[in-house]
Amino acid sequence: MNSDLYPDLAAALEQLAAELGIDLTVVPHDGGSPVSAGIASSIPGRRPLSVYIGADDRWFGVSGWGQGVELITGATPDLADVVRAGAAWDQGRSLRELRAGLPFLHVSERAEAHERGPAAVVELQWRTMREQAAEAPDFPAFGELVEAAHAEPRLRQLYVFSSHWTLGFSSCTGFPFHVEVAIAPSHNGSPYLVMTHPHSVVIGEAATAEEAVASAVSHLPAGLGPAVAGTAERDE
Q1: Tell me, what DSSP letter sits at residue 102?
Q2: Upper half-sphere CA count for residue 144 (Cβ side, 13 Å)
Q3: Are the CB atoms for 83 and 77 separated by under 8 Å?
Q4: Is 21 within 8 Å of 83 (Cβ atoms)?
Q5: Of 181, 189, 178, 171, which is closest to residue 212 (Cα–Cα)?
Q6: Residue-wise pLDDT tens digits, 125-153
Q7: Exposure string for 191-210, b = 16+ CB within 10 A, e = fewer
Q8: Alpha helices of 91-205 — where are they, by DSSP H?
Q9: pLDDT (average), residues 22-47
Q10: Whole-angstrom Cα distance, residue 129 to residue 147?
Q11: What are the helix and strand counts (H, E) for the chain?
């Protein structure tokens, strides 16, 4: 990045916030880099709002994460917009309020689901995964695996994701995930593989998707409930 576009972003944010009469806490970012900074949030579950400058043009980007999910993104040439976004982020404004008050911000469908709760995120992710499977007719084993897993209540309550066609099942909805079990689809006549983690230790093999799902369920911890908000680190 060209630091000449803004010699010290953190200092500029603090100065402009003071001029606007807005209370902000600017925190170091990326080892104290002059071209990036963070704006602290007092709301549990929200990480500091990341702020950075454009590499070739003078613009400011923001990214706000909470519980392992990117909730807001955006870019603007006006640093005052960033200061106002930081204040609203710190105050715990809802995603709808943030977007309505600051049109340069963008909110994904997953972020909106996250705000409604982990069950909404899980439902959205399963819908997305089934749509992905439907768009891969040349790999029917993947579609059969997705449908068989969706039909099993103990897997359907978990957050599902795919890694090179292997399904992972997480007990939390944020990244990094807490993977409970994973299943790789059959390929060119090979068996379905049940694993502890995608592309990891194989703990079972099966001839059909239904058998693979049954095997995966047998390896789930007893009493495992629906996926919860947060990450495997459980520190947000």
Answers
A1: -
A2: 15
A3: no
A4: no
A5: 181
A6: 999 999 999 998 899 999 999 999 999 99
A7: bbbbbeebeeeeebebeebb
A8: 95-101, 109-116, 118-134, 140-150, 153-156
A9: 84
A10: 10
A11: 8, 11
